[in-house]
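Lesson 9: reading folded outputs for more than one chain in a single document. The general rule is that every protein is listed as its sequence immediately followed by its structure tokens, and records are never interleaved. Here is the first one.
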Amino acid sequence: MATIKDVAKVAGVSTATVSRVIHDGGQVGEACRARVKKVIEELGYRPNTAARALVSKTTNTIGVVTPKLSMSFFGTLASGVEKAARENKYKLLMSNSLYETKSELEAIDSLRDHHCQSIILHSEYSDEKTLINLAKEVPGLVIINRYIGAIANRCVWLDNIAGGRESAQFLIDKGHRDFAVVTSIYQNGDPSFRVEGAQKTLAENHLSLSPRLIKEAAANIDGGEQATKALLAEGKPFTAILAYNDLMAIGAVHALFAAGLRVPEDVSVVGFDDLSVARVCRPRLTTMHYPVEEMASYATKLAIDLSRDPHCADGRTHLFLPTLVERDSVAAVQ
């Protein structure tokens, strides 16, 4: 493997000159710069970024920690981070926390060991005090999909209450009066905020949501199916289901079809997230678009800025809003 000394020897320059060429530094003539670049290419030389990190105690590296990258939502989040990282000439390190606080903190420690100063963290269960302390220690730490008032300038988050409100109002405008909910059993804030938003809108329209028609399960297709079966077993009528996410919504559709009910003719279903699967399932899913890729890109640029100046976002908040995408899983009540 070629070294910087090999490049310098073949090009007939000093290692300092090679270093300036690599980093686009000044004080190098154009002819010399071109000759050094040609030698670098011919020898296949690659700068030792790890060694540079040991000297500078930092790297042009973005870290991202999510609960489970294999899930569509978190894969989309990681894709948004990667795209923005490339645009800013940063490399990407990714890690799963597997929904465990210990694993989450270990992943952050590992990124810090690699001198990673910019980290995008989707934290499910770490307490606020822990995250506030981390923000003091990691210059470019950004919390995505969670709001903590004490470090609001580092939080990129979605207004889930507004999402619950809009989806409920859309169904009300379609004539629905009898609602059911399939929501996540996970104890983060998103499920309760979305239900809270829907309940507020229902109350403003002199409607209510029976506690018996709110069922919790795992936030996946199987969970949506199980929760919908439990709803049907209650025997209480409903014409619309609000689902915590698109996967639960698809599970709900499966359970309704298995029970001999048509979607949307008998029961309308609304999801949340607007994953790619929402566009290819049948019926195509009406859902709330979660701008996760845009949020991830924004969070990446914010993390880079914070790593350079921890006060650059003081006094700012970074709130995104979901938007309704109407497809085929909702029908008007006649």
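And here is the second record, again sequence then tokens.
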Amino acid sequence: MAADTPAGLSPRGPVVVAGATGFVGWALARFLSSDYRVIGLSRMPPRTDAGNRIEWRSCDLFSLQQCEAALDGASRAFYLVHSMWPSARFTQGNFEDMDLICADNFARAAAKAGVKQIVYLGGLIPDEPDLSPHLRSRLEVEETLGSWGVSVTALRAGIVIGPFGSSYRIFRTLVERVPVIPCPAWTRSLTQPVALDDVLALLRYCLDHPAPRNRDFDIGSPDVMSYRELIERTARIMDLKRTFIDVPFSGTLWCRWWLSRVTGAPREMVSPLLESVRHSMVARDRGFQKAAGVPGIPFEAAVRAALSSERAAGREDRPPADQRSGRRMIHQNDVRSVQRMPLPAGLTARQVAERYSDWLPGIFRTFVRADVDGGKNVRFRPVFSRTSLLDLAFFAERSGLADRQVFIIAGGLLARRVAARSSGRPRLEFREVLRREVLLVAIHDYHPTLPWYVYNCTQALLHLWVMRSFARHLSELAQGPICR
């Protein structure tokens, strides 16, 4: 911040931190709150935040409408969100596609609110063609955040070393609990961790020195090491004698189960991280850190500081997301399903949604009919009855742009009536992403009436079959000429 700006004030409006109850977001919101008006976003904001001037707003990033309300009046924003946790009781789809929807909603809302800059903390990207799904997702999020005209500064980092950090805690807990540590082939990959304090300083630097266009920068500590060396050095710091044994295979499948059991980390987080460690992730150029005056805290100093902070911390110092027990996001009997499909050249999401309505009656012939009226509304019913199984009402108010079309799940025997949620009504949406090459078809906030074990074996599988059949239909369309 400029020297003549009084503390606590920002001449460019409030700063939004998305993911403010997570490890980095919690630390960043508190770090900035003495000099900026900080708005923290989370699906489940903390009830209090004693001693910190943070304005909390509830925001489900899967809801575009709620993102728009949360970003209203903001001038700059940090995006510190990764969707590896389940976001509903029943989740159908890949975390990469969940990440895309959240990032696209945030970017659309930021553009509408007039946000001038988004700062994103992603991952180091190796110069290799076959990236893991986790690293591909980081790149897709980075691209999507900048797809609506808001300038994006992306900091790409490896393991962040700090108190209560998720990745750091996995290897720290492993060293604490296991006297004989097997070392598969992936432990020879290189990594370049970075201290949380350095990350906070560099994020703040981005805020004070906004880039006029989309930029990305690699960041890290001065230390490059293998994952095995990282674990060995951590054991020495903790004064623990450990035996390390090489095993002659990658062991990703058994490692994800074993690491989850040993460290207590959820498999939803361990699996994508382990898929990425086969890559060596090292900063290509740390010139940005030199310009920012943040040369980097050495690895061992960062680990010692993190251990000391965790020992001294009270419950209020832990990130709110870390304080919650169990699966944090599963708190309602709802369904989220996201399916990725090719978007044929020349077609928009609006045209695909219209084709979907035309295509549906042909796929249901024996037991179920899909009736479509002139207003694009769809009713599923048994062939022998007029009773509605599921009603899809076209939501024209939220389908003004051709790149996103929304249908409300309005009723029927298979849809449970629930109180209105702040994140929005149960809905089906068609959305263009990634340079209009990809279509996402998603169901949000749907509450089925069938018992869960029956739903999982029947309706959920039927929906997946319909989506895959429609994806094949779109692929066939992509093979031939398409007219608008």
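What the second record shows: Confidence is low (pLDDT under 50) at residues 1-11, 325-330.
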